[in-house]
Amino acid sequence: MTQNSLRETVRVDLGDRSYDIVIGPGLIAEAGAQIAAREPGIRCAVVTDRNVAAAHLDALLGSLAASGIEAAPLVLEPGEKTKRFDELVHVCDHVLGARLERGDAVLALGGGVIGDLSGFAAGIVRRGMGFIQVPTSLLAQVDSSVGGKTGINSSHGKNLIGVFHQPDLVLADTDVLDTLPIREFRAGYAEVAKYGLIDRPEFFAWLEKNWRDVFSGGEARIRAIATGCQAKADAVAADEREHGSRALLNLGHTFGHALEAATDYDGRRLVHGEGVAIGMVLAHEFSARMNLASPDDARRVGHHLREVGLPTVMSDIEGELPPTDILMKHIAQDKKVRRGALTFVLTRGIGQSFVADDVPADEVFRFLEEKRAS
Amino acid sequence: MTQNSLRETVRVDLGDRSYDIVIGPGLIAEAGAQIAAREPGIRCAVVTDRNVAAAHLDALLGSLAASGIEAAPLVLEPGEKTKRFDELVHVCDHVLGARLERGDAVLALGGGVIGDLSGFAAGIVRRGMGFIQVPTSLLAQVDSSVGGKTGINSSHGKNLIGVFHQPDLVLADTDVLDTLPIREFRAGYAEVAKYGLIDRPEFFAWLEKNWRDVFSGGEARIRAIATGCQAKADAVAADEREHGSRALLNLGHTFGHALEAATDYDGRRLVHGEGVAIGMVLAHEFSARMNLASPDDARRVGHHLREVGLPTVMSDIEGELPPTDILMKHIAQDKKVRRGALTFVLTRGIGQSFVADDVPADEVFRFLEEKRAS
Ligand SMILES: NC(=O)c1ccc[n+]([C@@H]2O[C@H](COP(=O)([O-])OP(=O)(O)OC[C@H]3O[C@@H](n4cnc5c(N)ncnc54)[C@H](O)[C@@H]3O)[C@@H](O)[C@H]2O)c1
Ligand SMILES: NC(=O)c1ccc[n+]([C@@H]2O[C@H](COP(=O)([O-])OP(=O)(O)OC[C@H]3O[C@@H](n4cnc5c(N)ncnc54)[C@H](O)[C@@H]3O)[C@@H](O)[C@H]2O)c1
Ligand SMILES: [Zn+2]
Ligand SMILES: [Zn+2]
């Protein structure tokens, strides 16, 4: 991590697929200059959603134009439902219609939905073209824009169709988060806290003390985002295609995905990061129940996430949840299941997560039955 | 290339993505044993088309079952039109519906259409799962099943959407070609001859003498297919993602693709290998005209391809061709064009092809005007 006044750069080390994540205020206004300096002559298809377009598209297009970068914008509907085959075709057609070549780029201006969808398109048009991420949600800045996982949902489950396609550059403008709805900011914060819980206990402790400053902006926010990016970059560099250690990033996600599925991916009831928040508390509680960790750690996690305003128990979710056997079906369908055995990220305490691939399904069932009653 | 009575094995060297191409008679009946020996416990989605299914699906499924390999078959319509987004979704849904996991495989039983489509699906379901090619057309055996290029067509052009996804194994049963329509056999033969024309002049001379035996079957056919696979494997190992030398494999293809587009990809008028045959003759003639090669070489190529029954001049194509400026538009749209400059594979003589990236468009235009008049 190199620092330059209020600007930090995290390098993702992946041999000839290495790239920079630049983090700091004012980066949208500077995007044209940043891109032109790295890739002279490049042209872009800018993919975004209606919400982000309203707040930031003109600024980005102005910055690109000022650096002489031709850009063809495409504005999609916001929301998880946009991550589907029809919209993938839409983006691919747009990129081809703009006559972009292999060396040109798809630029994703938006949250994880836009990033995942556009990155997938960039990975398959002409069997792979350039890709630039300008993440505008906190979740996208610390998580989805880094690491090259792209994809869409299928009727069989979330993110089941996609490719690994690394971006060439990530520009995380920390100012754009000021227009992000607070609920989305909190949801992204769950992923920030996740890095502390996986293997950075001192970062989690720092967040417990400084989270208010992260929410309000300024240096603490930049530091939290840069630490999150560094954590993600380390995990990705160690295991680009998620054959092993990268699976730790799924802390809280097996439970979280099941809850998202159980609420029909209805963002009014539960957004991804909220599912992850509840899932992380559940993972700590389940670890305590398996005598792997102290129940105090689970309480500490629950306390902190509740304090920032995140849901932390299943009963925080509005409306009815389906019966536990349906939740278990969603857990078993999650793609981290291999040849029948249940794989979970469990923990020995804060910052001491590990992958357990032999978790007994009946224990999980009983645990969930109890938890939802409580 | 290692030989074992009538069986040859060509290894494609790509580090941890290396794989074998096994070539010889009776391999469909032996597929179960071949696969089970390499990947114990694997399950498969078998994708094929109606023509191939009628002749070979039962034999393959029987062989898999005999080795205890679970297989979920999917039969699609034959023809180039199957390489489209709808059918990609269809295959992905089938694979997910069969609950296959990352370590399981999509098995393509068919020609290049089935191979390209299924390989693309294998490359994107769960961000990449296993892939086995059982090519049943001559073109697929010597070309499309080897090298990992997969994809579908778009309204903007052929093969514009796809991924690089290497198979784990290729089983080329030389007997299955006996049910292939002769016109398709000839079309595949154009790609076999192409390897001689690129950089194996002695192989081209051998084909001139032995082509009748290649058509009738037996050892000459196995030898021709194995040589073709070896040539393709060498090109792929040298340049997996087509950044440079692999472009030589496009000999005859820029003209060929333009002719396919000009005939609306109507297989009744022109199939891919026929376009390549005419395209290779044109590439040799154009090279002669540019004083790069002797006109005798162009005549020799035309003579041989005509002798085996392939079309070799534009007027061999049934019906009207569009005006030359439309052909030029198709040439410019071909994905081998970079930032406006026309890139062609030209030649200094038989077996001496090279990539020229500075071919003047007006020379090509005049050349085509003359050729179509002749
Ligand atoms: N690829 C990965 O590695 C990875 C990792 C984690 C999550 N994801 C995916 O990311 C998605 C969730 O991402 P997300 O939470 O960013 O969702 P999102 O893209 O839907 O964004 C959330 C909402 O905030 C709005 N928004 C975004 N930035 C804004 C801004 N600056 N101002 C105003 N509004 C703004 C969006 O329009 C949307 O309504 C999920 O689909 C998830 O699967 C991917
Ligand atoms: N991926 C690559 O590297 C690559 C290379 C070259 C060509 N291609 C693609 O391959 C496709 C052409 O392949 P193709 O020529 O095999 O076309 P194809 O798959 O359409 O097969 C040709 C016809 O022969 C039939 N057929 C195939 N095997 C048969 C058999 N054993 N018995 C009876 N009928 C049989 C098919 O049903 C079809 O009607 C094109 O789409 C082209 O773009 C890909
Ligand atoms: Zn997440
Ligand atoms: Zn070809």
UniProtKB/TrEMBL annotation, chains A, B:
<dbReference type="InterPro" id="IPR056179">
    <property type="entry name" value="DHQS_C"/>
</dbReference>
<comment type="function">
    <text>Catalyzes the conversion of 3-deoxy-D-arabino-heptulosonate 7-phosphate (DAHP) to dehydroquinate (DHQ).</text>
</comment>
<dbReference type="GO" id="GO:0046872">
    <property type="term" value="F:metal ion binding"/>
</dbReference>
<feature type="binding site">
    <location>
        <position position="149"/>
    </location>
    <ligand>
        <name>NAD(+)</name>
    </ligand>
</feature>
<dbReference type="GO" id="GO:0009423">
    <property type="term" value="P:chorismate biosynthetic process"/>
</dbReference>
<dbReference type="GO" id="GO:0000166">
    <property type="term" value="F:nucleotide binding"/>
</dbReference>
<comment type="pathway">
    <text>Metabolic intermediate biosynthesis; chorismate biosynthesis; chorismate from D-erythrose 4-phosphate and phosphoenolpyruvate: step 2/7.</text>
</comment>
<dbReference type="GO" id="GO:0005737">
    <property type="term" value="C:cytoplasm"/>
</dbReference>
<dbReference type="Pfam" id="PF24621">
    <property type="entry name" value="DHQS_C"/>
</dbReference>
<keyword id="KW-0862">Zinc</keyword>
<keyword id="KW-0963">Cytoplasm</keyword>
<keyword id="KW-0057">Aromatic amino acid biosynthesis</keyword>
<dbReference type="InterPro" id="IPR050071">
    <property type="entry name" value="Dehydroquinate_synthase"/>
</dbReference>
<feature type="domain" description="3-dehydroquinate synthase N-terminal">
    <location>
        <begin position="75"/>
        <end position="186"/>
    </location>
</feature>
<dbReference type="GO" id="GO:0003856">
    <property type="term" value="F:3-dehydroquinate synthase activity"/>
</dbReference>
<protein>
    <recommendedName>
        <fullName>3-dehydroquinate synthase</fullName>
        <ecNumber>4.2.3.4</ecNumber>
    </recommendedName>
</protein>
<feature type="domain" description="3-dehydroquinate synthase C-terminal">
    <location>
        <begin position="188"/>
        <end position="337"/>
    </location>
</feature>
<feature type="binding site">
    <location>
        <begin position="136"/>
        <end position="137"/>
    </location>
    <ligand>
        <name>NAD(+)</name>
    </ligand>
</feature>
<comment type="similarity">
    <text>Belongs to the sugar phosphate cyclases superfamily. Dehydroquinate synthase family.</text>
</comment>
<dbReference type="InterPro" id="IPR030960">
    <property type="entry name" value="DHQS/DOIS_N"/>
</dbReference>
<feature type="binding site">
    <location>
        <position position="272"/>
    </location>
    <ligand>
        <name>Zn(2+)</name>
    </ligand>
</feature>
<keyword id="KW-0479">Metal-binding</keyword>
<keyword id="KW-0547">Nucleotide-binding</keyword>
<keyword id="KW-0520">NAD</keyword>
<feature type="binding site">
    <location>
        <position position="191"/>
    </location>
    <ligand>
        <name>Zn(2+)</name>
    </ligand>
</feature>
<dbReference type="GO" id="GO:0008652">
    <property type="term" value="P:amino acid biosynthetic process"/>
</dbReference>
<dbReference type="Pfam" id="PF01761">
    <property type="entry name" value="DHQ_synthase"/>
</dbReference>
<keyword id="KW-0456">Lyase</keyword>
<feature type="binding site">
    <location>
        <position position="253"/>
    </location>
    <ligand>
        <name>Zn(2+)</name>
    </ligand>
</feature>
<dbReference type="InterPro" id="IPR016037">
    <property type="entry name" value="DHQ_synth_AroB"/>
</dbReference>
<dbReference type="GO" id="GO:0009073">
    <property type="term" value="P:aromatic amino acid family biosynthetic process"/>
</dbReference>
<keyword id="KW-0028">Amino-acid biosynthesis</keyword>
<keyword id="KW-0170">Cobalt</keyword>
<feature type="binding site">
    <location>
        <position position="158"/>
    </location>
    <ligand>
        <name>NAD(+)</name>
    </ligand>
</feature>
<dbReference type="InterPro" id="IPR030963">
    <property type="entry name" value="DHQ_synth_fam"/>
</dbReference>
<feature type="binding site">
    <location>
        <begin position="112"/>
        <end position="116"/>
    </location>
    <ligand>
        <name>NAD(+)</name>
    </ligand>
</feature>
